[in-house]
Design brief:
heterodimer, A: Rossmann fold, 2 domains, 6-stranded parallel beta sheet, 12 strands, B: two-stranded antiparallel sheet, 4 strands, 74% helix
Chain lengths: 321, 332
């Protein structure tokens, strides 16, 4: 009898061990080259900490890479380590073939943002809403300007994402003929470059009402140039991406030039890691989804307008930037 | 003491880097266990090393000649962009004859690579501008030409088979659980190492190259055409970069102009230096560079498998570069 019990116990233990199999999730993303990506790296680390504390059977491995070549190597290394799911924030679409290899090997694949150049080689694609990012911002700015005045744009690095954003701004402005876009110059998502562009703008244009930059980093650079010039004509600066210091200013209402921001959340990587974990475990996203068990194939996270009213929801004091 | 001290020293100098590679391999097996020794991982390591590795081979020639080439990564991006564009044209023109298109595209990459390398060489020899400055300039020129052509975007190839070629293997067979194979880029790396090593050690050009690198004036007095020898070092480098660019473009089946070949120059130079080639020129070995290339990749792979932060991996890489040069300095 004792032996039988012992045998049962062993069987039970083995069975539970079999059920509670460890799921390993590999994450590959660019290393922190600018503020936004620095925040994204921090969010990835946070998702790792949160999930590993929540579930003993989840192991998450983060790989930050400086170049796309390194990223491909990282993904190959993760595949050798036989991860169950892989979350890829691509440097660019050059990762397509290695992502395809992962998918063919049966790894659960989550791809973000800049994406891959082939369909049907991932389980989930997640991105922020580039169109709404500038549409919401521009609508707000137009209203503040009283639907009239001179506007200057400083855009990011010329790229498909940047084109969508800039085109959306121009489209919104078409609705308000009294708003004049004086100039559009790239600031390369770089604070220093944006400062230089703004200095040139200030030399060239005598009456400026508002400046719209493609992100908060560049907005701070442009504002620096404006402050140094000693001019008093600009009433509004708008960036985007919710840099911590900018959100704090909006929350405290401490800067008359900056009253709003638009989210383009770096936490998208943390959300993606959650999708990877849930997908690898074969769980449902939530109890409200009917019938379909698999996760949605394409997820677009909304861009939201941040003003004094809701700023505290987006203020993350622990985040690095 | 059966060995005479001089023989011992000779052995250490000749096989020192090979010994270091062996030690590193054992270390990696321990640190990166249980993944490092898996055949598929070792094949990955070799393939990952091969793209910058191929460039490092010809970079060895340039450094032996007493020069440097900072433009290799940008040059690779430029020739790969032009090659893929030409290939897409050919796919269209021939009505989908992909074999011809791929051959044409690869030929353009190699030919244009040779021309761009020759341009570097001409500016250095005829223009009498120091190599660092010339290649710093062309590094910027080639990169921004590519960005301009693609509007900072990417050129995707229209040939499915080009992508398959990028993942091709010379042979592959199953050994139990794991599959063993020789990827094409690794085969190319080894073949080029044989050829370039032969040129360096067994031909007149190789001897002239060392002579020019160790003392250009003495070489000139000995009736060596110094300018011509140096010119060919850069031209050969360009050609070899073309080969590497073709393999890398095939692997991705696309050329992303801002990222393609980014910081290749640093990895190539580091591999050459670790491999025992003197930065001041005059002496060096192609096989040493091959060892350097594999050492760098093994270090990265081992730390990656151990799960060390990528930022610390960069620190380790820096320490290894300085450390290996320090040891070589002691030997001199």
């Amino acid at each position: 009898m004792k032996k039988l019990l012992l045998a049962l116990l062993i069987v039970a233990t083995v069975a539970t061990m079999g059920f509670a199999q460890v799921k390993r999730i590999g994450v590959s993303m660019p290393s922190a080259t600018h503020g936004w990506m620095g925040n994204a790296n921090w969010w990835a680390t946070r998702a790792k900490t949160d999930w590993e504390a929540r579930d003993k059977n989840v192991k998450i491995e983060l790989k930050f890479s400086g170049t796309v070549n390194q990223q491909v190597s990282d993904i190959e290394d993760l595949l050798v380590k036989k991860v169950d799911a892989i979350v890829v924030f691509p440097h660019d679409t050059s990762v397509t073939s290695v992502v395809e290899k992962a998918y063919e090997q049966g790894v659960y694949v989550v791809v973000l943002d800049r994406g891959v150049s082939k369909e049907g080689i991932y389980d989930v694609y997640i991105t922020n809403d580039d169109e709404a990012y500038t549409r919401k911002g521009m609508e707000w700015l137009a209203k503040q300007m009283g639907f009239k005045g001179n506007l200057l744009l400083i855009t990011g690095i010329p790229s498909p994402i940047d084109t969508i954003r800039t085109d959306t701004i121009k489209e919104v402005c078409k609705k308000y003929p009294n708003i004049k876009i004086l100039d559009v110059q790239p600031g390369d998502w770089n604070k220093q470059k944006s400062t230089t562009v703004m200095e040139n703008y200030l030399q060239k244009y005598k009456q400026i009402d508002a400046v719209y930059t493609a992100d908060d980093d560049m907005m701070l650079g442009a504002m620096q140039a404006y402050k140094e010039s000693g001019r008093k004509d600009i009433k509004f600066f708008l960036g985007g991406g919710c840099l911590k210091s900018v959100i704090k200013e909006i929350m405290d209402d401490s800067n008359p030039l900056v009253k709003a921001d638009v989210t383009y959340s770096p936490s998208v990587i943390a959300t993606s890691i959650s999708y990877g974990v849930i997908g690898a475990k074969g769980d449902k996203l939530n109890p409200y989804v009917y019938q379909v068990r698999a996760l949605p194939r394409r997820v677009i996270l909304p861009s939201e307008l941040v003003t004094k009213a809701n700023a505290k929801d987006f203020y993350v004091p622990e985040a690095p930037f | 003491m059966s060995l005479s001290p001089s023989l011992k020293k000779l052995d250490l100098e000749k096989y020192g880097s090979l010994l270091a590679l062996g030690v590193l391999f054992v270390l990696a097996s321990i640190v990166g266990r249980p993944y490092f020794l898996r055949p598929e991982n070792l094949i990955n390591v070799m393939r990952q090393a091969s793209y910058t590795g191929i460039i490092a081979l010809s970079m060895t020639f340039v450094i032996i000649s007493g020069g440097i080439d900072l433009s290799v990564g940008s040059l690779a991006a430029f020739v790969a962009s032009c090659g893929v564009l030409f290939m897409n044209l050919l796919v269209k023109a021939t009505g989908g004859n992909e074999t011809l298109a791929i051959a044409g595209g690869v030929a353009v990459m190699m030919g244009l690579g040779l021309c761009c390398g020759a341009l570097n060489g001409l500016l250095i020899t005829l223009g009498k501008i120091v190599p660092f400055i010339v290649t710093l300039g062309t590094m910027s020129i080639f990169r921004y030409l590519s960005l301009q052509m693609a509007n900072a975007g990417e050129f995707a190839s229209h040939s499915q088979r080009f992508g398959e070629f990028g993942m091709a293997k010379l042979f592959a067979f199953k050994a139990g659980e794991s599959s063993i194979s020789l990827p094409v880029p690794v085969a190319v790396l080894l073949a080029l190492a044989f050829i370039l090593s032969f040129v360096l050690t067994r031909t007149r050009y190789g001897r002239y190259l060392c002579a020019v690198g160790s003392n250009a004036r003495v070489a000139q007095y000995s009736a060596v055409r110094v300018g011509r020898v140096r010119f060919w070092a850069y031209a050969i480098n360009g050609l070899v970069i073309g080969i590497s660019a073709a393999l890398l473009a095939a692997r991705f089946n696309t050329v992303s102009t801002p990222n393609f070949g980014l910081s290749f120059e640093m990895d190539a130079i580091a591999a050459v230096i670790i491999g025992g080639t003197a930065m001041a020129g005059g002496r060096g070995s192609v096989w040493g560079t091959v060892i350097g290339v594999f050492m760098l990749q093994i270090i990265q792979n081992m730390l990656n498998m151990a799960g060390l932060s990528p930022y610390l991996q960069g620190v380790v890489k820096g320490v290894v570069i300085i450390g290996s040069v320090y040891i070589q300095r002691q030997k001199q």
